[in-house]
Write a structure and sequence with these properties.
- Its EC number is 2.7.1.156, 2.7.7.62.
- The chain is an alpha/beta fold.
- It is 46% helix and 20% strand.
- It has helices at residues 15-26, 41-53, 74-78, 87-97, 107-130, 151-170; strands spanning 4-9, 30-34, 59-62, 81-85, 134-140, 173-178, 181-184.
- The protein has a seven-stranded mixed beta sheet, with helices on both faces.
- The two termini are 19 Å apart.
Length: 186
């Protein structure tokens, strides 16, 4: 039976560091699933720093969708623990690739993309469970900040909040990090 650990917190709160430390503690053959896309210099720098912070012997799979075919990757098959960093970037990527005009779209379009995002999350959890892998999922807590002033920001916050609640309900352990201090909340 696979184990799910969820780590949440605000931006630069220490989530990734906690995820990496938990992975080192719990796994031997670790695969890091990187969900980010290097779309600008700032993101390229973040990716570089994340790569430098984790052990070089960890395998990396760059992926934010189509998790049913992750089983074709030998590193996944050989792993005993998966570290996915981060769920909110995965959600962002899926929202943006939908090419929806978020300022003028209908609620049905938003509901459909949210359904697709949930399907991706469920596919990931099903594959993890089927192949008896443990997973640590890093995600941002997006509901404690300022209410977004633009529609896409509100849509993202709402979907990410519901995904986080869902993942927390599936997880055996949930941690929140604040100023680099982790707290176990489940």
């Amino acid at each position: 039976m696979s184990k799910v650990i969820l780590i949440t917190g605000g931006a630069r709160s220490g989530k990734s560091t906690l995820g990496e430390n938990k992975a080192k503690e719990l796994g031997k053959n670790i695969v890091y699933i990187a969900t980010s896309i290097a779309f600008d210099d700032g993101m390229k720098d973040r990716i570089k720093k994340h790569k430098e912070s984790r052990p070089s012997h960890w395998a990396t799979i760059e992926k934010y969708k189509d998790f049913s075919n992750i089983v074709e990757d030998e590193a996944f098959l050989q792993s005993d623990l998966i570290l996915l960093d981060c769920m909110t970037l995965m959600i962002s990527n899926l929202l943006l690739e939908s090419n929806i005009d978020f300022d003028n779209c209908k609620i049905e379009e938003i509901d459909n993309i949210e359904k697709k995002i949930f399907e991706e999350v469920n596919t990931l959890l099903e594959v993890i469970n089927k192949y008896n892998k443990n997973i640590i999922i890093v995600t941002n807590e997006v509901g404690m900040g300022i209410v977004p002033s633009y529609k896409l920001g509100s849509i993202f916050r709402d979907i990410a909040g519901r995904i986080n609640q869902y993942l927390a309900s599936k997880a055996e352990e949930v941690y929140i990090t604040i100023s680099g201090i982790p707290m176990k909340i489940k």
